[in-house]
Amino acid sequence: MTETISFSERDWRQLETLRAEYLTGAVSDWSDASTLDLYHQSFGQRIAWKWRAVLAEPAVARLAPAAGPVVDLGCGSGVASLECHAAGAVPADADWHLLDRSAVARAYATDRLAEIGVRAHSDGRAPQGEIGTLIVSHVLSELDEKGLDELVALASRASRVLVVEPGSRPAASELVALRERLRAECDDLVPVAPCPHSGACGLRAPNVAANEGWCHHFAPPAPEAFTSGFWRRFSKRLGIDLRDLPMSFLVLARPDQAPAAASDDGLVPARILGRPRVEKGRVRFELCWEEGVIEADLLKRTDPVLFRGLREPEAEPRAYRVELGARTGDATRVTRIEPATGSDTPQ
């Protein structure tokens, strides 16, 4: 699709304006459909790449679509809904509801969904009763206290909650705060990803809050990011490194819908946060597991193949099952490790 995109000089200047507004924290009200269309074809596609990575997570991909209406809160151009539909993450005949303060955005997203045969409600009102899937994409920073309360109220009626946000420290902190609030107020929702446990977030522990860690991850860009003339110009013109796609995300589901816990074989579910740091003969990383967030390391000789994989920046997801040994120096040694299959979700 991107190979055929041709933007005028005016279009590129408009994208530069959108980029500058984003960097200053300004919020677009999407009063202009043409600007929203430019966004959808450019910045929106980078958000789509994040959603593809999240929906391809083993623990998420194993979830059966949740019956009931789909609600897209802060739908924007509809890119998150489009990706959820394409991945089969929702029922094919789901009743779709688009919520956004911008009527232009709701109309635009409605048209994009109609192109794939989905008829959506664009009146901006949430359905009554239970919700199948609640979709939230790049919205948290725009919500005031009332808006956050409305999000939690919708989540309390949902069987599935999917949230994708930027990978910055502030955005990730907001998402952790949302996780803890949902954990406290929505007893029938449990984390599926990225969390390897359903307890309190280890990043909120006093001994962790002051360090450099935050719950962020990296999505692989689509192949066209490296082959398309459009994306080359996009990168150069807007100063965006297409190889770097940081994100934070949260997926929750009803306990009866979440994958069953793995058998006890000495390995515990864990998640590497951010990117590992490669040193001579070992790789170090921040590891989230049921007892908190720790500094851990893996020796090359423990698993040479996986060690090489961890050195690759695009090696995602970083969900594993691990065996932890003694603390050696300033890190806890990982003595056994294997990729998670998606069944290692706490309940």
UniProtKB/TrEMBL annotation:
Entry keyword annotation includes Protein transport: no
GO process terms (BP): translation
Keywords for the protein's UniProt record, in alphabetical order: Iron, Iron-sulfur, Metal-binding, Transit peptide
One Pfam family named in its UniProt record: Rsm22
Origin: domain of life: Bacteria
SUPFAM superfamilies: S-adenosyl-L-methionine-dependent methyltransferases
GO molecular function, one term: metal ion binding
Listed InterPro entries: Ribosomal_Rsm22-like (IPR015324), SAM-dependent_MTases_sf (IPR029063)
Gene3D superfamilies in UniProt: Vaccinia Virus protein VP39 (3.40.50.150)
Name this protein carries in UniProt: Mitochondrial small ribosomal subunit Rsm22
Keyword Ligase in annotation: no
